[in-house]
Hints:
The protein has helices at residues 15-18, 30-35, 45-48, 69-75, 89-98, 141-149, 152-163, and strands at 2-8, 54-57, 81-84, 101-104, 117-121, 126-129, 132-135. By secondary structure, it is an alpha/beta fold.
Amino acid sequence: xxxxxxxxxxxxxxxxxxxxxxxxxxxxxxxxxxxxxxxxxxxxxxxxxxxxxxxxxxxxxxxxxxxxxxxxxxxxxxxxxxxxxxxxxxxxxxxxxxxxxxxxxxxxxxxxxxxxxxxxxxxxxxxxxxxxxxxxxxxxxxxxxxxxxxxxxxxxxxxxxxxx
Length: 164
């Protein structure tokens, strides 16, 4: 079980708020992309987030465009787990592809605030916060294999390196 500091956000946060679309084709380095994560929603995020922190959000996190920077801008800031009441389908898949764990856990965002600490037990699929426990669904074995490899591209690179 690991402790994680929370950054809590609401429902229907779209990818243009997670990573402003105006930077999509101008910023290239991970550091530059990380510096603009959530700047329109929470201007303090990029300067104060620490590796191991988690996003805890409401419903439909990541709605909007399919741009991968909505996930990579958080990943480049050290966020490797996102917990939301629900995710948009495209965003959920982008998380998997980038090796960032999306956990579906309705209700957690209602009991925690930014700065609170939660415990995530990946082995037993349980989050503990404010004296309460929340179960979450495990990933399918095929999706877990992608996560274990660090994302889709690393998994494919390993697969092709072995076969070629």
